[in-house]
Known about the structure:
- The protein is largely without helices or strands.
- The chain has three helices and eight strands.
Amino acid sequence: xxxxxxxxxxxxxxxxxxxxxxxxxxxxxxxxxxxxxxxxxxxxxxxxxxxxxxxxxxxxxxxxxxxxxxxxxxxxxxxxxxxxxxxxxxxxxxxxxxxxxxxxxxxxxxxxxxxxxxxxxxxxxxxxxxxxxxxxxxxxxxxxxxxxxxxxxxxxxxxxxxxxxxxxxxxxxxxxxxxxxxxxxxxxxxxxxxxxxxxxxxxxxxxxxxxxxxxxxxxxxxxxxxxxxxxxxxxxxxxxxxxxxxxxxxxxxxxxxxxxxxxxxxxxxxxxxxxxxxxxxxxxxxxxxxxxxxxxxxxxxxxxxxxxxxxxxxxxxxxxxxxxxxxxxxxxxxxxxxxxxxxxxxxxxxxxxxxxxxxxxxxxxxxxxxxxxxxxxxxxxxxxxxxxxxxxxxxxxxxxxxxxxxxxxxxxxxxxxxxxxxxxxxxxxxxxxxxxxxxxxxxxxxxxxxxxxxxxxxxxxxxxxxxxxxxxxxxxxxxxxxxxxxxxx
Length: 489
């Protein structure tokens, strides 16, 4: 190994370094001397850099003078960030990196003099280009994972001095309102909000919450949950008595009633149908009490049935052949009211009040209009009430003058009482001896007697021979006549 060559090489390197140090010290001494001489200071340490208009704050106060005063030249030293850190001078300083946000402003607008990393503030007005060119979560913080889905630019909603939303342009928002307005990210439905679907835009617009245009199709639940006169207007004091199902009668775009569901009402019809609040009884309505649903139904005024118990006045006020069906041409002649014979449920069957009938019984009781004489009825005139009463066919009396034929036609012991066993032997002409009023014998027509006189005149049945009578065994009619005992032949 050639040690001489190695030693010679090392010596040359040391000599070069030493020479460089000496040169730097001489330069500094010359610079310091020039500065002192030019400013009139006795020493460099007493120099007040503030008076130059460039205070040595932050990192500048810790920087060697020669770093800025290149080659010991003091005059003309740059005094702005851009001149030094923009490559516009001979000063070797750090400059804006390639990923620095685009800006033409001075460094101190955003940075402090302590460190590049100590950013005091960012004046967005000093930057140019779109916000997201920087706020991309790479260069600087951008939209967080929880940020709402939007298509617009940052400054469509945010200000340039803070992240707070100054104006939200909903046109750029992606998704439904409830994606944000859920009570977590931003304000959602308050506690007293109507029970509704989560389609905010059905009622609200994107500029403000109220006033809202209510879309009732988006509301869940019954109307009364809101329209209760607490949250929203409900039934007024003069509302008809009804259940709380508003939509049975009303529609959602107006309070006007489009149709009344009478099944929801709890008041009587006349409460409304009194001619003031709603249509009532017409002028030509039959005289009746005010219970409409006795006769009418709720979907039409047409009368489906008549509750006659609600009608005031006599039947014939309506049943006169004009207002309602009256007596037909074949009706029996009568003077009384319909209810004397008929019921209000039906015209037939009827219970005839015969006191109101103005013509003879046989006009009706002829076997055609009403039941008449039966086949086994005794032969008689057609004057029923001579023998019968109007409430039963049972015979109470027999008007014999109305009977056609002989007594024995009835008084034969079958149809009616006939001659008893002890009756004298006679012809069948009862009225020869009896009257039609009683069986008591008013007179005896001896011409009708078929037996001998002694059959009756035996002192028991009829008067017989007295004690002074002549003794004889002959029959009475040998001496006497039938009209008088006194005449003796």
